[in-house]
Design brief:
270 residues; Lipocalin; alpha+beta; elongated; single chain; 5 helices
């Protein structure tokens, strides 16, 4: 979950200082998306009481992948730290609720074969998202996480996990279900409603009773969330980025207007 980047180019060094100053001071007069109060503006999402609701803690090493194909550049990036929890209802999976957080300060781009270009592009991405060196620690803390709060689930391939026949994955018994999660996404202080198709694999010790609790749950997005940068006010916030946008119409040609976001997560009982 996360989003927009650019690479440095020697072309920009040829632009005159007067144009640089003009672009650096310019601001759009059009109103931006509505701001959320803070990350806490997303209320916690908790499952309704049930005899089979089990709380799971997300592993801290979950991955979020960002894919942004534009005509002139195909940007790829990844975050590598997650937080959050899930209330999983094993007898009615659609009752499951939870909150997933991805740490934007861990975002790194891997667009190029040259590591130095990826380092520079990563720095610009952090500045666009206001989690980089150009903002105060308070602003960075406010923008650090992308948060997805699950508000409802439908389209489950099976509702009662205890009735699913397991398959083998090494020494584990695994019960697999696909479903669509609907929720609120908070990014860069802005909220939208988003949906994502998930594959959920629930792991059990071999031969475990059907009504036992999974020892691990793996969750993967089967289709990407398609996020529009303008919905979250993600845009150039350093002189380099502003100049690039004004002079070369960076957004839409060099940097895509949207980002395809997928993720892989795991969770264990809390």
């Amino acid at each position: 979950m996360a989003l927009a980047f650019m690479r440095p180019s020697v072309v920009f060094t040829c632009l005159v200082a007067g144009s640089f100053a003009l672009v650096a001071c310019s601001k759009s007069d059009s109103p931006g998306p509505a701001l959320a109060e803070s990350a806490s503006a997303l209320a916690s999402s908790t499952a309704a009481a049930s005899a089979m609701v089990v709380k799971y803690k997300l592993a801290t090493d979950g991955k979020t992948s960002i894919d942004m194909p534009a005509p002139n550049e195909h940007i790829k990036a990844e975050t590598s730290a997650t937080d959050g929890s899930l209330d999983v209802d094993l007898m009615n999976i659609t009752n499951t609720r939870g909150t997933v957080k991805a740490d934007l300060t861990t975002l790194k781009t891997n667009t190029f074969d040259d590591p130095s270009k990826n380092t520079a592009q990563t720095e610009h991405a952090h500045n666009w998202l206001e989690v980089g060196s150009l903002v105060t620690p308070e602003v960075m803390a406010a923008n650090k996480y992308v948060v997805f709060a699950i508000r409802s689930i439908d389209g489950a391939s099976a509702n009662d996990i205890t009735k699913l026949a397991p398959t083998k994955d090494g020494s584990d018994d695994v019960r697999t279900v696909t479903l669509t999660a609907h929720g609120e996404l908070l990014l860069h202080g802005h909220k939208t409603n988003e949906d994502v198709l998930l594959e959920v694999k629930l792991h059990y010790p071999s031969g475990a009773a059907a009504d036992s609790h999974p020892t691990k749950i793996d969750i993967a997005a089967k289709t990407p969330m398609v996020l529009t940068l303008a919905d979250y006010d993600v845009k150039p916030r350093d002189n380099f980025g502003q100049l690039a946008t004004a002079s070369f119409k960076l957004l839409g040609t060099k940097v895509a207007n949207t980002a395809d976001v997928t993720f892989t997560l795991s969770a264990t009982p809390q």
